[in-house]
Amino acid sequence: MAFSILSRKQDIERLKNEKLDLLTIGGGITGAGVAIQASSMGMNNALIEMQDFAEGTSSRSTKLVHGGIRYLKNFDVEVVSDTVKERAVVQGVAPHIPRPDPMLLPIYDEPGATFDMFSVKVAMNLYDQLAGVTDPKFTNYTISKEEVLQREPQLKPEGLLGGGVYLDFRNNDARLVIENIKKAHENGGLMVSHIQALHILHDENGRVNGVHVKDLLNDEEFDIHANLVINTTGPWSDFIREMDDKQKVVPQMRPTKGVHLVVDSKRLSVPQPTYFDSGKQDGRMIFVIPREDKTYFGTTDTDYKGDFKHPRVEQEDIDYLFDIINTRYPEAHITVDDIEASWAGLRPLISSNGSSDYNGGNSGKITSKSFDEVIDIVDKFEKKEASHEDVEDVLNNLESTLSEGKLNPSAVSRGSSLEVSDDGLITLAGGKITDYRKMAAGAIALIAQLLKKDFGENFNEIDSKHLEVSGGDIDPNNVDATISFFAKQGIESGLSKEEAERIANLFGSNASRVFSQIGKIDAAPGLSLAETISLHYSLDEEMTLTPVDYLLRRTNHLLFQHDTINDIKDGVVNEMARYFNWSDAEKDAQMKKLNDTIDEASLKYLK
Asked: In sequence order, which residues have a C-beta less than 8 Å from that of residue 325 and are 6 or more positions away?
């Protein structure tokens, strides 16, 4: 189904003329999760986003579907259990996106260390039990100091005790959003980007019944009416709540900024994702991740009060990360001149909750009695004196020293909040990318209940744990073979193996639709045939409206293929200008926007 500038015009006409069951404000991962479930249930629903889909927080994560092993430092089993179980659900509904990628956790003998060699083994065993990891390829193991240094010779040897290796998953955050959005649109939802909410509307009884908006592509303002409105705008949640002049709003968000920096793998070589303490006794841990012949590292976690629409990397951010990286990898000598790309994003933390995605606070320890029981059962399991069921029984009956171990009554996942204001505005905030499906399911259950109670509408429940996203028609237990099958279609049509595999990995089961264009269109000037068909598919079916949309959020080219960005940017802009019939002035403006984005990502302003 077309999902393009043409369908956008049609959808806007419907927004002006129909009363919806549900309007979602915010096109990041949370809103996308609500939209796909609402559409699958047959709700007449729409989603509006003031930027490109995922342009805010949801394209600026650490790009992992992370299991949260660090929470096991405090034996916060509940949060890890929830996270790894939900991660498995995400991998099932979007099997072409999260991919298993075992994580190395070097252990140092230093003050404030999260783990020692004993506790990391206990934590990893618990982690595997909670995640149901049984495949010998992915079960955890410990390695000696010598083995760690064989894998990563650049690591600092002083104080290194050894390491642990456990299962984690890499992610393509922006593509997870767009695949949910595409499926929601395919199922009848109206998904429209570059529409800004300006004011919350009310009926004669003072109940929320829509939003006054502006189309940022032509500055036209109009009203959208809906029985229910849900605010899923992440860090912007308080801004939307403040548009409701019938309510006195107490701010609930406390966003923090996270920064990631990309260098060539020749400057910092790691064979697998690596995760270690900052070494600064500040409670933070740092990721160093290989990706497409590049290495990226982060993250910071600092309170943020700047421009929410445009957070960027500042000098203090890189100073902090360089100090840690050059201490852990003393021969690397990374400087700002090595940075090829970067990104900064805001985490939508709720001020009443202390835990962020990766560098969170303590949400409670288990009692000493339960701690001893955990150690004992793990030891017995290792000696084959206890079964999986025995371990699960102990884990399911842990005693917490803090009541914070239980979810807040208004939460649908750890660190989230689902609330309805007195006049009916629903706000779903907080959480993290791994929990998006679960958060959306909680919101949809409430929405269905309200639509039935207040509007007499009935919708059949769905099992969103098995609701595939667009491109997800792949056996999650046989992903590599299925991706190879799709890639074979491209190879047989004349693409190289590398080109075909890249398309198959990027678009999943939709790769067939990409390859079907071969023979119908020719390679655009300055672009390969593979790049041309990828671009055209994205223009026709992924609501790609600008070169930055395509090169940053649809393909990650701008982040992880810095070496070739200058080779293709002219071809991309020229082909999009032809597709959209841009004037010379518009084409020049789009090229400037792309060059400015490349310069900012490469930190030209700090060099």
From this structure: 268, 286, 288, 297, 332, 334
Ranges of beta strands (E only) in 168-277 are 169-170, 190-193, 195-202, 208-215, 220-231, 256-264, 274-277
- 562-584 tens-digit pLDDT: 999 999 999 999 999 999 999 99
Where would I find the H helices in 388-478? 388-395, 436-455
The residues near 569 (Cβ < 8 Å, ≥ 6 apart) are 547, 551, 591, 594, 595, 598
Average pLDDT over residues 194-212: 98
**Other beta carbons within 10 Å of 397:** 9
Residue 279 contacts residue 108 (beta carbons within 8 Å): yes
DSSP state of 111: T
One-letter amino acid of 260? H
Token pair 């506790």: residue: 119
pLDDT tops 70 at residue 363: no
- Residue 393: closest CA among 371, 373, 364: 373
Count of CA atoms in the C-beta half-sphere (13 A) of 514: 32
Average pLDDT over the chain, rounded to an integer: 92
**Which amino acid makes up residue 584?**
D
Q: What is the 3-state secondary structure (H, E, C) of 507-576?
A: HHHHHHHHHCCECCECCCCCCCHHHHHHHHHHHHHCCCCCHHHHHHHHCCHHHHCHHHHHHHHHHHHHHH
Element (H, E) at 161: strand 160-166
Tokens 């934590």 found at: 123
Per-residue pLDDT tens digits for 445-492: 999 999 999 999 999 999 999 999 999 999 999 999 999 999 999 999
CA distance 605 to 607: 6
**Residue 482: enclosing H or E segment and its boundaries?**
helix 479-492
Residues whose CB falls within 8 Å of the CB of residue 112, separated by 6 or more in sequence, listed in order: 277, 281, 283
Query: Which stretch of DSSP H or E encloses residue 162?
Result: strand 160-166
Q: How many residues does the chain have?
A: 607
Q: Residue 299: is the preceding peptide bond cis (ω within 30°)?
A: yes
The SS3 call for residue 84 is helix
| pLDDT tens digits, one per residue of 319-354 | 999 999 999 999 999 999 999 999 999 999 998 764
Instruction: Supply 118's token pair.
Output: 């004993």
Q: Residue with structure tokens 């030891």? A: 379
Domains and their CATH numbers in the chain: 5-58+174-253+408-466 (3.50.50.60), 94-170+254-404 (3.30.9.10), 517-606 (1.10.8.870)
Residue 298 pairs with which residues in a beta bridge? Answer: 287
SS3 (DSSP) at 156: coil
DSSP 352: T
The first and second tokens of residue 187, run together, are 């199922």
CA angle 174, 177, 179 (to 5 degrees): 110
Pick from 73, 133, 132, 87: nearest CA to 355 = 73
Over 50: is that where the pLDDT of 402 sits? no
pTM value is 0.93
Task: Give the pLDDT score at 373.
Answer: 76
Residue 434, pLDDT > 90, answer yes
Q: State which H helix or E strand residue 347 sits in.
A: strand 341-347
User: 372 is written with which tokens?
Assistant: 């001893």
